[in-house]
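Q: I'm a student working through a structural biology exercise. My instructor gave each of us a protein and asked us to get a predicted structure, then write a short paragraph describing it. Mine is Membrane protein. I'm not confident about reading structure output yet, so if you can add a plain explanation after the tokens, that would really help. Here is the sequence I was given:
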Amino acid sequence: MLFVAAPKGDAFMMRDQMLGVKLDTRRVVLLAVLIALQLVIARFAISLTIFRISFGFIVTALMGWWFGPFWAGLAAVIGDLINSLMIGVPGGYFPGFTLSAFLGAFIYGLYFYHEKITWWRVLAAVTTVILVVNLGLNSWWVSIISHTPFGFHFTARAIGEAATLVVHPVILYIVMHFEPIIRLKNRII
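A: Happy to help. First, here is the predicted structure for Membrane protein. I'll explain a few features afterward.
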């Protein structure tokens, strides 16, 4: 269950579930490496006529799985700021996309942190990110920036996101059950 508020000593499991692991130097370095990896991997994408599949979501999901919602969200914000301000994005910086980055990582953390990674959990996490962040918020941000109707952007994005809904869960499930990834998680986190 996502929101369990049963007592656990002086704290609540819900708080621990939201904040994630306690960061020591080793974990901060790993989080920084994941942010850098996300920036690099997000640049590589498969572009088809209707949509583009980027692989940055894999690292975002791993951050949520390994560090919990809060730290994953914060790392996604840092990554978005570095990408927007230092590397540059078409159209310039817009804070709404930073909020989207935070929420996407936060959602993955809610679904994956301290949870068994099942096919249904992966599908639910990806579906939530697609509906709330990709279709909902990102369509809204683009409509604000471009001064065009929300429905236009929502409809245009829906086609690509339908393909994403098929591809992302499969990739995430495979990656999250890949033995070297599991060993790294168990060794470092």
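A: Here are two points you could use in your paragraph. Residues 23-188 form a domain with the Arp2/3 complex 21 kDa subunit ARPC3 fold (CATH 1.10.1760.20). Confidence is low (pLDDT under 50) at residues 1-7. It's a good idea to check both against the output above yourself.
Q: Great, thank you!
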